[in-house]
Amino acid sequence: MLFLKSSCANSSRLILFAFLWLIVISCRPVVKPVQFPAEPKVRVALFTDQERVAITATAPFTIHSGAKKKTVKMGAICRISYLNTITVQGAIWLKNAVFPIQIKPEADGYVSVSNRIYRGYLEIRKNPAGKLTVINILPLEQYLFGVVPCEIGGLKEATFEAGKAQAIAARSYTISHFGWFSHLGFDVFATYQRDQEYRGKGAETEMTNKAVLATYGIVALYRNKVIEAKYHSTCGGHTIGGKAPYLKALPDTPYHRKGKTPFCRDSPHYNWRKSIGVKTFLSIMAKTIPNFNPKAKITAIRLKKDRRTQRNQWVKIFTNRGRYQIKSELFRQALELKTNFYSVTLSRRAINITGHGFGHGIGLCQYGALGMAKRGYKCEEIIKHYYPGTKLQKIY
Question: pTM for the whole thing?
Answer without folding.
Answer: 0.88
